Amino acid sequence: MTEMLKGIAASDGVAVAKAYLLVQPDLSFETITVEDTNAEEARLDAALQASQDELSVIREKAVGTLGEEAAQVFDARLMVLADPEMISQIKETIRAKKVNAEAGLKEVTDMFITIFEGMEDNPYMQERAADIRDVTKRVLANLLGKKLPNPASINEEVIVIAHDLTPSDTAQLDKNFVKAFVTNIGGRTSHSAIMARTLEIAAVLG
């Protein structure tokens, strides 16, 4: 029996190819009480630097495939990674509560995300919530020693299936191989939808 699934046509097109499931790693962690908070701050600094390096590489690739203007979406994420106020609050949380870097990171970034998402009359600030969420996932992955999916490694014609695609994911799609993508969430105005239209890749979201 054939089941038809419906979504939002975020980028026009028709594609036929085998499905490629893009699986996100498990980024769950336990909050741990620590004595050596300096070591946790050092772990945080290393994860932030690794995340900056990764995003810088992705941004350079995006300039080549999407153009400078579209690649500027990564500038906001790089700014989050270097935001002295946020980093200071994370480190203060680690010191004050004597918790591991993962717990300090999540507590502070969740607070910022909640604040920005609540600014319903300010779309710009709501976009910053998405930036922080994307960056937090990358930093957590580096803290936990997990690898995020690498869509750039796809080397055959596929339709990518995922719960969601971040701009970082979308920027790494090679339209010679990725003929379309389908996600559970998102809409026509999301960064991923805009990038899909720039790349001329068919996309159905939501």
Automatic annotation (TrEMBL):
One of its GO terms (molecular function) is transferase activity, transferring phosphorus-containing groups. Coiled coil: none annotated. Keywords: Transferase. Residues 155-206 form the PEP-utilising enzyme mobile domain. It comes from the Bacteria. Residues 6-128 form the Phosphotransferase system enzyme I N-terminal domain. Pfam families: PEP-utilisers_N (PF05524), PEP-utilizers (PF00391). One of its GO terms (biological process) is phosphoenolpyruvate-dependent sugar phosphotransferase system. InterPro entries: PEP-util_enz_mobile_dom, PEP-utilizing_PTS_enzyme, PEP_util_AS, Phosphohistidine_dom_sf, PTS_EIN, PtsI_HPr-bd_sf. Belongs to the PEP-utilizing enzyme family. This is Phosphoenolpyruvate-protein phosphotransferase.
